[in-house]
Amino acid sequence: MTKKGSLFVVGIGPGEYEAMTLKAVRTLESCEVIVGYTVYVELIERHFPGRRFCTTPMRQETMRCRLAFEEAGLGQRVAVICSGDAGVYGMAGLVLELSREYPNVNVEIVPGVTAAMSGAALLGAPLMHDFAVISLSDLLTPWEKIEKRLRSAADADFVICLYNPASRKRADYLAKACEILLEYKSPDTVCGVVKCVGREGEERRIMRLGRLGAYEADMFTTVFIGSSQTAKIQESEGNGNGWPWMVTPRGYQI
Ligand code: SAH
């Protein structure tokens, strides 16, 4: 059977057009229909005139993917967009699970720059060594499992990158996570937070683990907790930005 339509699952990166990969841009330019969560569609809409945009609210992920398959089934080129990378807490997995029900649609995944990477670059180089990525969202994962992963990653001295550190309903989750981490790590551990990378309101801060629990994270925040080796490199006259960097040494002799 020749497949009729094409469905692309595209990671659009942190938010700014310049941080999209060229492949993501070309793919979206080649599509007739672009489907996504309202906030992400608003971020890219003006760069892709003439495309038909379909927005669906948050928490309507399955509906969003089915809508995209149905549009593609009509013989069109359709994109589902995700922030960052589509395969990191994005929609790529769900699309592939559903793809069995839509044998006439070809699926392709187009990677993007995930928040761990765009946030790390803003803070310096916190992910230079082994790191673990953990989402604090317990919508689809029981909190006991999240807590176990926090403990294991802290115990193994990974740098830890936290996605979904808070939402309106989960305002105290970052504080809860910090309490657990402090059982294993020094309160002096260097940490970094980034908010709205590549979007309006972009923010970056470096602080100690002892202070991190009181930080007001929101759903556009990504948190970095250093390993025992991570350091804050003080601003020097030369670095131009006037801000410190968060750096996990790779181990080179200098
Ligand atoms: N697929 C996305 C992650 C979606 S989960 C990616 O690969 O980046 C949503 C979480 O991602 C947010 O709670 C936040 O922790 C992080 N995030 C996504 N975009 C961000 C941005 N522009 N700035 C900071 N954090 C971001």
Number of helices: 8
Helix content: 25-40%
Number of strands: 13
Mean pLDDT: 94
Q: What radius of gyration results from the CA coordinates?
A: 20 Å
Distance between the termini: 61 Å
Task: List the secondary-structure elements in sequence, H or E.
Answer: EHEHEHEHEHEEHEHEEHEEE
Give the spatial strand order of the biggest sheet: 3-2-4-1-5
Query: Which spans have pLDDT < 50 for at least 5 consecutive residues?
Result: none
Largest sheet: 5 strands, parallel
Question: What class would the helix/strand composition place it in?
Answer: alpha/beta
Write down the overall geometry. Answer: elongated
In this entry the ligands are: S-adenosyl-L-homocysteine
Q: Note the beta-strand portion.
A: 25-35%
Short recap of the structure:
With 254 residues, the protein is of the alpha/beta class. The chain has 8 helices and 13 strands. The mean pLDDT is 94.
Notes on the structure:
By secondary structure, this protein is an alpha/beta fold. Strand 9 (190-195) and strand 10 form a beta hairpin. The strands form three sheets. A five-stranded parallel sheet has the order 3-2-4-1-5, sandwiched between helices. A five-stranded mixed sheet has the order 7-8-11-9-10, sandwiched between helices. The mean pLDDT is 94. The protein has eight helices and 13 strands. The chain has helices spanning 22-29, 38-44, 61-73, 92-98, 115-123, 143-155, 173-181, 209-212, and strands at 5-11, 33-37, 52-56, 77-82, 105-110, 124-125, 131-135, 159-163, 190-195, 203-208, 221-225, 231-233, 245-247. It binds S-adenosyl-L-homocysteine. S-adenosyl-L-homocysteine binds at residues 14-15, 82-85, 88-90, 114-115, 119, 163-164, 194-199, 219-222.
